[in-house]
């Protein structure tokens, strides 16, 4: 697998494949790859002949008190996993390449970033939209695959790609979970064994809420019970448990087609997110 480190090299490699009539899928990541990331590569191969992944720990999407410095990094290990999954090119630019001196542009999607995670992570989704627009503009791939685990991010990227005519089709891929139900996340590495065990309350609370809502129970009481269950399991802070429209992310007081239950909560020092379709 070749590794390129500049936008020009990425553009040239993808364009060369496309000139040969091949379709190209792009999978942006921050590395510390797990089976959830590799499933995005597999999904990419369903839509394209070649898959390009990127690894870039994007400083612009971390708040000042967040984990940028300790975010796990293992390019060699990640590259081996990508080869095994069928990826043919890795784009791994430096921070200086992505944001050279004088860099002054931001991409901001209106509305969606103010909800849910955006309320506790101000500026986070501006950083995401900025880096993803740069990545998509450089790759010019036919499709790009993002995980439904970051449902709000996926909604924002869909909006942005449509609004800005980026020309890459955005594809969502289902959440990959450990056998016990915890959604895979690079940040799960931060959890102690005890925290990892208690964190199972998150997928369980969502599954219980999903089942309860399907029986027609009231939304407010169901969400409150889920929040209480998270606190009882030892989550230090519950940022939200909400039923939302999957596209607009607006809060719902009754399930509708496309509704999702979304949650974010902090276990120890680790903020975890999860979501389920109703
Ligand atoms: P990250 O490296 O955490 O920025 O994630 C890169 C991509 O992988 C994003 O599109 C995420 O939504 C996706 N992803 C992360 N974890 C999972 C998971 N457990 N299942 C599916 N996709 C995931």
Automatic annotation (TrEMBL):
Localization annotation: Cytoplasm
Binding-site residues for ATP, renumbered to this chain: 30-37, 147-150, 176, 184-187
Coiled coil feature spans: none
Enzyme class: ligase
Any one cellular-component term (Gene Ontology): cytosol
Catalytic activity: (R)-pantoate + beta-alanine + ATP = (R)-pantothenate + AMP + diphosphate + H(+)
Active site location: 37
Family affiliation: Belongs to the pantothenate synthetase family.
Protein name (record): Pantothenate synthetase
Protein source organism: Sandarakinorhabdus fusca
């Amino acid at each position: 697998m070749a590794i390129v480190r500049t936008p020009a090299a990425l553009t040239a490699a993808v364009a060369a494949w496309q000139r040969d009539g091949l379709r190209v899928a792009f999978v942006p990541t921050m590395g510390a790859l797990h089976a959830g990331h590799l499933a995005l590569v597999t999904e990419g191969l369903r839509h394209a002949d070649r898959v390009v992944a990127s690894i870039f720990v994007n400083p612009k999407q971390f708040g000042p008190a967040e984990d940028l410095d300790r975010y796990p990094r293992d390019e060699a290990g990640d590259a081996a996993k990508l080869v095994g999954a069928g990826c043919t090119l890795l784009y791994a630019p430096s921070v200086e390449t992505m944001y050279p001196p004088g860099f002054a542009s931001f991409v901001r999607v209106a509305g969606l970033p103010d909800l849910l995670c955006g309320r506790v992570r101000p500026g986070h989704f501006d950083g995401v939209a900025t880096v993803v627009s740069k990545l998509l503009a450089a790759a010019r791939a036919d499709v790009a695959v993002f995980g439904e685990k970051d449902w709000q991010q996926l909604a924002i990227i869909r909006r942005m790609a449509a609004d800005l005519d980026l020309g890459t089709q955005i594809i969502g891929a289902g959440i990959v979970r450990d056998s016990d139900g915890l959604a895979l996340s690079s940040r799960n590495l931060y959890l102690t064994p005890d925290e990892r065990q208690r964190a199972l309350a998150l997928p369980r609370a969502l599954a219980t809420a999903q089942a309860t809502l399907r029986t027609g129970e009231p939304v407010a009481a169901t969400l409150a019970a889920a929040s209480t269950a998270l606190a009882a399991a030892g989550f230090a802070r519950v940022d939200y448990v909400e039923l939302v429209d999957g596209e607009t992310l607006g809060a719902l007081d009754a399930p509708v087609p496309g509704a999702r239950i979304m949650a974010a909560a902090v276990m120890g020092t680790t903020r975890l997110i999860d979501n389920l379709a109703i």
